């Protein structure tokens, strides 16, 4: 199978020796148009045909409504690219799909033999037909990866569903994930790696980074995965922008993408007649550095360029690979970052293996809602502690007497004032340092931040709302030590509980905590 070729090239044996450049992997990103036909799509197919003939690129990835805009589905292009003899990597995002559609589309992709996936949370929806589309984000990337892992073993259908209680045939997916090494603040950067660990635990088998240009930040990621004990293939994204795109990125218009001011200024000074060659040469030098840093390959993104341009990047990078260290100083932008995790090596400008202490013990100003929430949670919602037993019996008594209406009224009056409660019936305050993901996260995420935050601000509400998970980081007083801890994966919201009392659902074991499954002592 075509997917097996990618699987083989991504699983490079760890022999302890530096692989030669001929085994360095190249993939390339295609961005479908908002159309079903036309020049852009014709150019994509032409690129795929040339890449298939040249055999220098291992696979072509296809974005899924990149930037939050509608476009041709990756499934459609993936089928055509597979027919050309290339391995398609299908981007699979969560933003437009509920969990049922996610499952249905995974069946479809498996049926079509499009089994190599890059799982993403996705950008917040933007312009669509007659206005902005409704965001979905029913599951996050961690939970989709968990679903795919179960599908690979044979998904067991819930016994309460029609035809339930059976195990489906195993599906042969090969799923990867994304991480950004290019976050400007310390909490955002640490949280990216904590979430990456969750993704690996959930079943991600390879990693592709977000685009960026700083060699030290790229190397930082390699070192973080090393101290975490994570050994999966990693491809570093190299974006080759024109000046117009570079200016757009610099303005933070594209979520999660960064453009150093100094690099933009350099590009603005390039002579027009030499700009293309300088773009390609800079990309080649960055590819050589990434080879030297030990990445398994590079994921190229070069909007508007043809295959011959990409071929020039690869050929020139091969020539530069033996002296990659000569180029490192041109790819260091320390003025851009306040988020380095390791101490700086003064000789190379890169990182030492020593973790920085910056950020340890940092804490936001305690709020009434946080302090009160912690106290109440300990007193009433920690099995075996405080008044957990009596509270549980009281709630169960209310259920028996059919007087749960007043319980819901009291609960939501209290939680509405403190947390802007959305009455989901499946409360996550105790999991997220008493911050409500339903009202305070635009994407309603549960297992860590998306990649779109900028300087600690939410992707959707910049300069208006802080990222919920950055606030969680400060409330929990986390630092680099959290990188060494095994993170908990939070189960998805059960929509059957919507508008019900979350207290009742907690004590009766119906919510995501499933306390009925615990053998606690209530005495």
- Tell me the Rg in angstroms: 24 Å
Q: Give the CATH architecture of the largest domain.
A: Alpha-Beta Barrel
N-to-C series of helices and strands: HEHEHEHEEEHEHEHEHHHEHEEHHHHHH
Secondary structure category = alpha/beta
Q: Helix tally?
A: 17
Structural write-up:
The protein has 523 residues and is of the alpha/beta class. The protein folds into two domains: 2-355, Alpha-Beta Barrel (TIM Barrel); 368-447 and 489-517, no CATH class. 38% of the residues lie in helices and 10% in strands. It is built from 17 helices and twelve strands. An eight-stranded parallel barrel has the order 1-2-3-4-7-8-9-10, surrounded by five helices. It is globular. The model is unreliable at 11-17 and 519-523 (pLDDT under 50).
Task: Give a brief outline of the structure.
This protein is of the alpha/beta class and 523 residues long. It has helices at 2-10, 39-54, 74-83, 99-111, 141-153, 186-202, 215-228, 243-250, 261-268, 275-293, 307-320, 368-380, 388-400, 404-419, 437-440, 468-475, 502-507, and strands at residues 25-30, 59-62, 87-93, 116-120, 127-128, 131-132, 174-179, 207-209, 234-239, 297-301, 342-344, 351-355.
